[in-house]
Write a structure and sequence with these properties.
The chain is an alpha+beta fold. Helices cover about 50% and strands about 10% of the residues. Helix 2 crosses helix 10, helix 3 packs across helix 4 and helix 8 crosses helix 10.
Length: about 625
């Protein structure tokens, strides 16, 4: 029966781009079974290395206490074990036990989180017990309950958690004893409770643990969250209430799925406008890292932004759950262009993004019908953009040999859904802006991350310096991640600003160029481009090509009306310019180089000419999306 249900869940995901509560519950059941297996494996491996527990009791004792708690109160222990922090911790400890992960903390403190987990389970189940646990700088974290501060500064020490007759205490040598409140959700002088945000609209309730005491980062290497103050917590509650109302009213399927499977929130400080920060991880089922709503942003905009980000990240959770059941890809070294990211992505990453952004496109499709005024105008742009970007990416994935049969079914199911929306009427203006935003991001991405073939660059530079025509063939480039390739979405970013806040866009356009510095990653050339002043944009892009690689992409696009290939190969323009300058000692006029190279790509079959002539160049070597 279990295999039948899991197969059914897979088929539901494969056949629909929408979230479904039934699928979420099946994936939750599967994830709980997986979590139990991980814990059993961790206990067995730690037990085989008794020294790993240090001065703590053997891990078997903690396991037995957890088992007692499960027998007494299985629902409470299930909630405890499904806490995303438990998944992150278990995966981390297994890596440490197997020697594949390092940490500054002593191993016994990580292993000892099992003892703290067992203590939490026993408290939730109402058991009497005593259990030594690790303490960090005098604090003891009990998963799903809270953190006790025992008043010492020793980096790593032993503490003890005990419970008798419903009263729970945490104490340690050299410190004071902390009485855990009967209502563990209440803060006291030395007790910081794990807090929850609950929002209700009509008959649907969403409850999220606020992971601002988290020990294990959702994204490795990132700093832990800061404890929210009461004002920040109230702002989160207000923003969540508004987003939840929107989801329940207009995106019911998504809301039901979120209510069933979204478990915790790791709060981040507010991000840039139209660029909320968010993340999720495969070992943290149901957890989302998310930047706080910006109080300076209009309410309707902030509400839609929070709602779509919750949908976006939860789709990552769903796909992670599916990937734990069935592999979607085989090993693959290819790197891909991700229209929603600045950096090149591996196959699994690009599949994740395509799945998530097909849901984003669905969200904005609904908003096109429900919103009015500038909000509807923005929804039309977002729908046109993300339908285009997700579909283009999925069409590339569909032919990739490293997809498994299940992965290919998923891709084709998503594609069928996206293609079914093609008959939806959108204004030509929205389609054109989406096309330009997509082309701009891709051109900037290529200018940063695609390295042209060295022989092609050398031959092209030779031709320029000798006054001859460019080479007739161009070899494929390779992808090398450029860490300076950031905020490549500037065109779409400015389109959003021009729709949602025309005065702010006008100020960026009409005031001193330094005024755009508050729009991170944006230059006056980008503002002029979006504003439609193409002659000024061309001139500005040409001036900044030496210091801003993405400007080659913008310049190429502005010449692409006559020479389409320029927008597709900005990396070659950049590399040839640098080669000629290095060899001649003189800077190359970017527009002149672009025009010369473009004439060889005019596609009319005529022979290439010298600088003042015209000609064509084979595009058979164009770098494919599977490697770019």
């Amino acid at each position: 029966m279990r295999h039948h249900r899991l197969d059914h869940a897979c088929l539901e995901l494969l056949c629909s781009a929408g979230e479904r509560a039934e699928v979420t519950r099946v994936l939750l059941d599967a994830e709980y079974s997986r979590r139990l297996l991980l814990l059993r494996l961790l206990v067995d491996e730690a037990a085989a290395r008794p020294a790993a527990a240090g001065a703590l009791p053997p891990v078997g004792e903690a396991w037995q206490l957890l088992a007692r708690a499960q027998r007494r109160h299985p629902a409470a222990v299930r909630r405890l074990l499904m806490d995303p922090q438990v998944g992150l911790w278990a995966a981390h400890v297994l890596r440490r036990l197997r020697g594949s992960a390092d940490d500054d903390a002593p191993l016994w403190t990580d292993v000892g989180r099992l003892h703290a987990l067992a203590a939490s389970g026993a408290v939730l189940a109402g058991l009497d017990f005593r259990m030594p646990v690790p303490a960090r700088a005098g604090t003891v974290l009990l998963p799903c309950l809270g953190q006790a501060s025992c008043g010492t500064r020793e980096p790593w020490a032993l503490a003890e958690v005990s419970a008798h007759g419903g009263a729970t205490r945490v104490g340690m040598d050299g410190g004071h004893t902390v009485d855990v409140p009967a209502d563990a959700t209440t803060d006291t002088e030395n007790w910081s409770a794990v807090r929850r945000l609950t929002t209700r609209h009509r008959d649907l309730v969403l409850t999220l643990t606020v992971d601002d005491l988290a020990l294990y980062p959702v994204i490795a290497g990132t700093a832990g969250p800061a404890r929210l103050d009461e004002a920040e917590l109230r702002r989160w509650q207000l923003g969540l209430d508004r987003a939840w109302t929107l989801l329940v009213e207009d995106h019911r399927d998504s809301a039901e799925a979120l209510a069933a499977g979204l478990l915790s929130l790791v709060p981040l400080p507010p991000g840039e406008r139209f660029r909320p920060r968010s993340a999720s991880a495969s070992e943290a089922f149901g957890c989302v890292m998310l930047s706080a709503p910006d109080p300076g942003v209009p309410e309707q905009e902030a509400t839609a932004e929070l709602a779509v980000t919750l949908v976006h990240e939860f789709r990552h959770t769903l796909l992670n759950g599916l990937m734990h059941l069935a592999p979607l890809t085989e090993d693959c070294a290819d790197l891909f262009h991700a229209p929603w990211r600045d950096d090149p992505r591996p196959l699994t990453g690009i599949l994740h993004g395509a799945f998530a952004f097909s849901g984003v496109a669905r969200f904005w499709r609904t908003r096109c019908a429900r919103d009015t005024g500038s909000a509807r105008e923005r929804a039309r742009f977002e729908f046109a953009l993300w339908r285009r970007q997700a579909r283009t990416t999925l069409e590339t994935l569909d032919t990739h040999p490293a997809l498994t049969a299940t992965g290919r079914k998923l891709v084709r199911g998503l594609l069928a859904d996206l293609r079914s929306w093609d008959d939806r009427t959108l204004p030509e203006s929205a389609l054109l802006l989406a096309e330009r935003a997509a082309a701009h991001q891709r051109a900037a991405w290529r200018a940063h991350h695609v390295v042209p073939d060295e022989e092609t660059v050398r031959a092209t530079a030779d031709s320029w310096l000798s006054g001859g025509p460019p080479p007739r063939t161009v070899a494929d480039g390779t992808v090398r991640t450029d860490p300076d390739g950031c905020r490549l979405d500037v065109f779409a970013h400015l389109v959003r600003l021009s729709i949602a806040d025309p005065p702010a866009f006008s100020a960026a356009r009409t005031t001193d160029p330094a005024a755009v510095n508050h729009l991170k990653g944006v230059t006056p050339a980008d503002v002029a481009h979006v504003a439609g002043d193409l002659a000024e944009a061309r001139a500005l892009y040409a001036r900044q090509t030496a210091t801003r690689p993405g400007s080659w992409g913008g310049l190429g696009l502005l010449l692409a009306d006559r020479h389409r290939a320029l927008g597709e190969r900005p990396e070659l323009l950049r590399a040839v310019s640098r080669a000629v300058t290095r060899r001649s000692g003189q800077a190359v006029p970017p527009a002149e180089l672009a025009e010369w190279l473009a004439r060889a790509w005019n596609g009319d079959g005529s022979p290439a000419d010298a600088h003042s002539g015209s000609g064509s160049m084979s595009q058979s070597a164009r770098c494919s999306q599977s490697t770019a």
